[in-house]
Design goal:
The complex is a heterodimer of chains A (102) and B (168). By secondary structure, chain A is mainly alpha-helical. Chain A contains 3 helices and no strands. Chain B contains 7 helices and no strands. In chain B, helix 1 packs antiparallel against helix 2 and helix 2 runs antiparallel to helix 3. The longest helix of chain B is centred in the middle third of the chain and has 25 residues. Classes of the chains: A mainly alpha (102), B mainly alpha (168). At the A-B interface, helix 1, helix 2 and helix 3 of A face helix 1, helix 2, helix 3, helix 4 and helix 6 of B.
Amino acid sequence: MLVNQFLLLGAALFCIGVYGVLARRNGVLVLMSIELILNSVNINLIALAGLHGNTAAVTGQVFALFVITVAAAEVGVGLAIVLLIYRNRRSVSLDDIDLMKG
Amino acid sequence: MVLQNAFFGMLAALAVVSALRVVTTRNVVHAALYLVMVLASVAALFVLLAAEFVAAVQILVYVGAIVVLFLFGVMLTRAQIGADLDLDNGQRGLAALVALVLGGTLTWALIDAFGDDKLPELSDADVAARGVRPVGDAIFSTYLVPFEVVSILLLAALIGAIVLARRD
C-alpha cells in the first residue's frame, strides 16, 4: 500500500470537516465537523509513523491515543457550552451569537 | 496486497461518502449516525495499518462515548425531528470553495512530498512489535508523564462541563 493513499484520505476528510465548520449553523453539527478534522489527523499520524519502523509506529499510536483523549475532553466542554447557549437563547444557531460584533 | 488495497478502497469510499453526508444532511440525528459510519471505517483503516489498540479505543471512545454525548446534545437542545432546512448558513458556496482550494493544495503537497513511497510489508514479528503490548509499555514508561497530564486534563474538562451545564 502507498502511504499517500492514507494521507490523501486524511486530507479529504479534513477538507470535508473544514467545509462543515464553515457551512453549518447548528452548534452541535459544527462540533461533529471538528471531530471529522481530528480523526483525519489521527489517520495521518498513524500512517506516517508506520513508515519509519516499529518504534516510530508505536510512538505514532500513542500520539493518536492522546489526540482521541483531547477530542473527548473538547466535546464534553463544547457540548456544555452549546447547552448553555441553548438555555439562554432557546436556539443553537451560531449566527445569532453576535454580541461581540461592533 | 491486492486484498489490502480492495479493503482500503471500500473503507475509504465508505468514510468519504459518510463524511459528506455528515456535513450535508438535513437531519441532525442522521448526521450523528453517519458520523458513526465514518468513525467505524476509520477504525477499520487503523486495523489495516496494524494499529489494533487505537482501533479499539476509537470504537470505545468515539463511537461508544462521544457519539452518545452528541445524541444527548441533540436531545437536550430540542433539535427538530425530521428534516430541518435551517441547519446551513448562507456561506455554503464560499465554504465549498475554501475546502476545494485547501484540498487541492494538500493533494499537490502530499503527492509532491511522498509520491510513490510504500508502507513497509509487515512480518508477523513486526505486527507484534506494533501491537497492544508495546503500546502499553510505551504509555507507562516513556510517555508516563504526558499520560498523567492527559488524565488531569480529562478531569478538568469533566468538572468544567458539569460547572458549565448545571442549573444554579
